[in-house]
Specification:
Largest sheet: 7 strands, mixed
Structural class: mainly beta
Number of strands: 11
Helix content: under 10%
Strand content: over 45%
Mean pLDDT: 94
Shape: globular
Oligomer: single chain
Distance between the termini: 40 Å
Length: about 120
């Protein structure tokens, strides 16, 4: 089992920045894919960024050029640097891990709220 815990959310004004962290514990050695999702009220959950192996393989069009995903050397902690935040970025942000490069994500954090005021 893998346990995930996000941190770093909060309230920020439009144009500001936040850095989210996702700390993993447990059997992380077999993890291949790490991702950030978000879900705004009344909307479906959206994939924001994905790290497969050692590199970022996906950004949602809505965050390209503003958000940057990364991980530490042992890939047990992943980050999401969010710059030039917009009110439409307001959502609960989740990190998720899986053992394979495709398929459903098996492990999820509890989520962290990001609120961007205009």
């Amino acid at each position: 089992q893998v346990q995930l815990a996000e941190s770093g959310g909060g309230l920020v004004q439009a144009g500001g920045s936040l850095r989210l962290s996702c700390a993993a514990s447990g059997r992380t050695g077999s993890i291949y894919s790490r991702a950030w999702f978000r879900q705004a009220p009344g909307k479906e959950r959206e994939l924001v960024a994905r790290i497969n192996g050692g590199g970022v393989t996906y950004y949602a069009d809505s965050v390209k050029g503003r958000f940057a995903a990364s991980s530490d050397n042992v890939q047990s902690t992943v980050y999401l640097q969010m710059n030039s935040l917009k009110p439409e970025d307001t959502a609960v942000y989740y990190c998720a891990f899986r053992n394979w490069d495709v398929g459903e994500y098996d492990y999820w954090g509890q989520g962290t709220q990001v609120t961007v005021s205009s």
